[in-house]
Amino acid sequence: MVKFSIRALNIWFDAVHALKNVTMDITANEVLSIIGPANSGKTAFLRMLNRLNELSENFRMSGEVKLSRGNIKDMDTELLRKRVGMVFALPLPLPLSIFGNVAYGIKMHGIKNEKRQREIIKQALKQAYLWEEVKDRLDESAFKLSGGQQQRLCIARTLALKPDVILFDEPCSGLDPISTAKVEEAMLRLKTDYTIVLVTNNVKQAARVGDKTAFFLSGELVEIDKTDKIFTTPTDKRTDGYIRGKFG
Amino acid sequence: MRKFREFFIEKLILICGLAAIFFVVLIFLFLLKEGLSVFGTVSPLKFLLGKSWYPISEPAQLGILPLILGSLLVTLGAAAISIPIGVACAVYIAEIAPLKIKEVLKSGIELLAAIPSVVLGFIGMVTLVPWVKSMFHLPTGLTALSGSIMLAFMAMPTIVSIAEDALYSVPKSYKEGALALGATHWQAIYRVILPAASSGILAAVMLGIGRVIGETMAVMMITGNAAVIPQSILVPIRTLTATIAAEMGEAVVGSEHYFALFAVGIVLFVMSFAINVTADLFLHKKK
Ligand SMILES: Nc1ncnc2c1ncn2[C@@H]1O[C@H](COP(=O)(O)OP(=O)(O)OP(=O)(O)O)[C@@H](O)[C@H]1O
Ligand SMILES: [Mg+2]
Q1: What is the rounded distance in angstroms from the CA atom of residue A41 to the CA atom of residue B43?
Q2: End-to-end CA distance of chain A
Q3: What is the DSSP letter of A54?
């Protein structure tokens, strides 16, 4: 089933043509990895899916993005962003307690009952593999957690909203290998219930987690295919070069 | 040669620094020495809590409670007006206003800060005072309220510009994080950006109020200068600052009155010092 369908998408920031005529589908309940060198438009693409690009005053676009058949342009941004959660490159806890961070979103979307809140928060922290580490210190400031724990907290915060899709923008770029493994494990488990789009600079990570992989280069979508296919017999020479270059 | 120059410059800077500290200490000691002498004739408690200020009657009555209450009343009034408006204005400039309006507002605020306080007092006298008088059907418009409104205008530029800085330096990522969770712009401001900037905003408020407490000329011109304990905000009052400014010229050097005015200075000094230290604490907490 197609979750996102993207047709002839172009994005500009002033004169910078950040995405060029991108057309692709994102399948539900799969992990799509997006790889590509710096400035290839990966982040811009991700931020398109939850309309976060619109925060930049110099942003313009053409083409269309549909989420389950509805054009995202016609959706309420708050509801769209609740359905399409995002985890950023740097772990970004809000200046609140651990509990407060996860509670923030659900409170905002109108869940006032405290018992209900506690249940949702516990479940979200469990899904993000963080519960055991923080269950006795929920009222401490989120900044006291390690970088890897903070990143999983951000995942939990997104999960608490029960989104359809979760966007990850290089979620492991600042993390050590063990934290990285934990985040990857969380992502693999999550795909049964969610659709996941993972932008990563780490080609091996793309290969480990992605069902499909897309390769971006200077704003163009060069190739999108099953991860196995991309990593063994890519159609485009440039994909091959990039992957080999990275493998050394 | 270069070594010598280094040495020379270093020592010069050291001397300048020491001189500055030296003069501050000197001023403070002078203030203390002159001010504390008044307590030979009145007890500190009577001085601070005495209800009447008749410095030139025989015997002189040196109670500064009316002056302290006068200062507090105008200051609180000014705070009640300037804090909500100032913070709201800072939020508008930092978060909501489009680029062009933002520039206009910022220069407007700077302009407001540049108006000398006497001028502001003068304008207040011919516009605000008659307005307050007719608005509340008072015998005179020279009231604490007029003073508060005008002082609010003086505190506002400080509050707005420092609070705006504090809001602006909240990492963009907090806002994006909140928005990505489906917060509306207002929810992000209210639940994330304001709390994150809170210590800077508090410092802004403190500095704004510090400016208000020390203000003299303008308050003297429009608050009526009646040294009585105020029963409401719609009566004339007199502040600590205005008292010193108005009476220092007439007080005989070395008289009780003269020393009492210095003691008023000490009280004022302690008040603004406390406010500045509090503001500093908040600013440093932010760092
Ligand atoms: N808000 C913005 N304003 C101006 N230009 C932007 C903005 N966001 C992105 N760009 C430009 O769009 C292009 C694509 O940027 P993008 O961040 O999507 O790259 P990326 O593939 O995510 O790179 P990286 O691997 O370094 O994160 C870049 O040239 C960048 O300078
Ligand atoms: Mg990026």
Answers
A1: 76
A2: 36
A3: G
Cis preceding-peptide flag for B195 (omega within 30 of 0): no
Atom of ligand 1 nearest to the CA of A37: 25
| Minimal-distance CA residue to ligand 1 atom 9 | A44
- Residue B260 neighbours by CB under 8 Å, 6+ apart: B38, B42, B47, B55, B60, B62, B64
Please give the average pLDDT of every successive group of 10 residues along chain B, which has 287 residues: 87 94 92 89 90 86 92 94 96 92 93 90 93 92 93 94 93 89 91 90 91 88 89 92 91 89 92 87 71
Per CB-CB distance under 8 Å, the chain A contacts of B187 are 108
Indicate which residue's Cα is closest to atom 31 of ligand 1: A39
Between CA A69 and CA A63 the distance in angstroms is: 15
Domain ranges of chain B: 44-283
Beta strands of chain A (E only): which ranges?
2-13, 16-27, 31-35, 59-67, 70-71, 84-87, 165-169, 195-199, 212-217, 220-226
Q: What is the dotted CATH code of the domain comprising B44-283? A: 1.10.3720.10
Containing B97, the helix (H) or strand (E) segment is none
Q: Specify the pTM.
A: 0.81
For residue A28, the CA-to-ligand 2 centroid distance in Å is 23
B191: chain A residues, CB-CB within 8 Å: 104, 108
